[in-house]
Every structure is written in C-alpha cells, then in structure tokens.
Amino acid sequence: MDQVEYRTIRAGAHPTGEVTDRKSRFIAQLAGVSTMAEADAFIEQVRSLHHDARHNVPAWVLADGRERVSDDGEPQRTAGMPVLEALHGAGLADVCCVVTRYFGGTLLGPGGLVRAYASATQEAISAAEREGSIATMTLVTSVVASVPYAAFDRVRRLATDSGGHVTDTIFAEDVQLQVAFRCGDEVSFTDALRELAAGEDLCVVHEPTFSEF
C-alpha cells in the first residue's frame, strides 16, 4: 500500500450538508466505514430514512483503494461521480456519502446536476470540518521492546527522539515498552536499540496498521 495517511469520518458522526437548486433539495450525509458491508448498511439506512425521495445517490471509497458509485436513476456520470470526486478532493477514505435529492419540478441539466451533487457533498465535508468529525489516519508501526530496568529511561528517551510515542509500559521481569511510530520511523529506533544491546535484538516489530497518531 502506497498510501501512508488519509482522512476519514469519526465513528458515530454523520455530518450533513444541503443545497437547493431550482427547488430541488440535495442532502448529503457522510459516515465512516471500513468495509463494503458497512457502506451498504449506511446506504440502506439513508434510503430508509428518505424513502420518499426521488434519488438517493451513494458513493464510497475504502482505504485499500476499492470504491463504488451509483447514479441511482440520474443521467449517467452526473451524480455518483461528482460525489466521489468531492470525497477524493478532500483526501477522504473509509468513507461513504449518500446524497438525497427531492425533485423540485425543474430539470437541471447535466451540468446543473454535477454542480449540485458536488456542492452538497462539499457542504457535508465542510460541516464535518467545523464539527471536528474528521480524523487523520496514519500508517503506524507498533514496536514492543523488552529491556532491563536499568535501561528503561534511556530507551524511552531513544523512542521519543526517534519520533515514537510510548503507548503502553509493562513492568515485569524486564520492562516492556510498546511504542508507536509513523511507518518507517521505527527503523532508527530498532537499529539504535540493537547497537545499545551489542547486537542483541530486543524488539518485536508488528505489521503497520492505520490509526490516529
């Protein structure tokens, strides 16, 4: 995975944005999702809530690159794609957006539809920014180091100097420090600790995962 950082909607938040064009209402709702099933569930939730609307246009994108859109009866590429492009433009992933349209009786034309669907999505993203509903997810590597008590303070400083955050400490026969690093930054820490331990490997390096850092 080339991506090392993305933004998403915090769990439980559903920011909303709305625009009106020639009496048609476009209501965009966002949700954080991490799987196709979660995206489908949110889409169905919005469709159930707005069952009387003419269109409920969904778009979602996951952090692994999978994405899907539907125009839900609107002319091809006038609805779902503008929503998806607004999500991409905001650097969002693991996110689903559904834009509900209540038809106002006047046809907007392809250009008008593209603008309205994109604008409603952007309004929801702006609301998420204002509400603090957007979280930045970073590719993080967790390292667990087991060190003698006498080396504890020195290793903790070494972790901090290498850009890490100590997330947990267990005091047992030795001291176990769990340290989170931005992916790649852990190398300087593990190399320095190996040198400090005269070549002995005191670290367990876990697979990178996305989390807030």
Descriptive overview:
This protein is of the alpha+beta class. It has 2 domains: 5-132, 2-Layer Sandwich (Ribosomal Protein S5, domain 2); 138-211, 2-Layer Sandwich (Alpha-Beta Plaits), CATH 3.30.70. It is 32% helix and 34% strand. It contains 5 helices and 11 strands; from the N terminus they run E-E-E-H-E-E-H-E-H-E-H-E-E-H-E-E. The chain has helices spanning 36-49, 80-89, 109-131, 152-161, 186-196, and strands at 5-9, 16-21, 24-32, 55-61, 67-69, 95-102, 134-147, 165-171, 175-182, 203-205, 209-211. The strands form 2 sheets. Strands 1, 7, 8, 9, 10 and 11 form a 6-stranded antiparallel beta sheet that branches. Strand 2 and strand 3 form a beta hairpin. Helix 2 (80-89) runs parallel beside helix 3 (109-131). The radius of gyration is 23 Å and the shape is elongated. It starts with a strand and ends with a strand.
In short:
The protein is an alpha+beta fold. It contains five helices and eleven strands.
Please give the CATH architecture of the largest domain: 2-Layer Sandwich
Query: According to CATH, what is the topology of the largest domain?
Result: Ribosomal Protein S5, domain 2
Instruction: Determine the number of helices (DSSP H or I, runs of at least 4 residues).
Output: 5
Q: How many β strands by DSSP? A: 11
Biggest beta-sheet profile:
6 strands, antiparallel
Q: What spatial form do the alpha-carbon principal axes imply?
A: elongated
The CATH class of the largest domain is identified as: Alpha Beta
The averaged pLDDT comes out at: 94
**Terminal Cα span:** 18 Å
| SS-based class | alpha+beta
CATH superfamily of the largest domain: Impact, N-terminal domain
| Strand content range | 25-35%
**What is the subunit arrangement here?**
single chain
Low-confidence stretches: none
Radius of gyration: 23 Å
Order of helices and strands: EEEHEEHEHEHEEHEE
- Give the count of structural domains: 2
Helix content: 25-40%
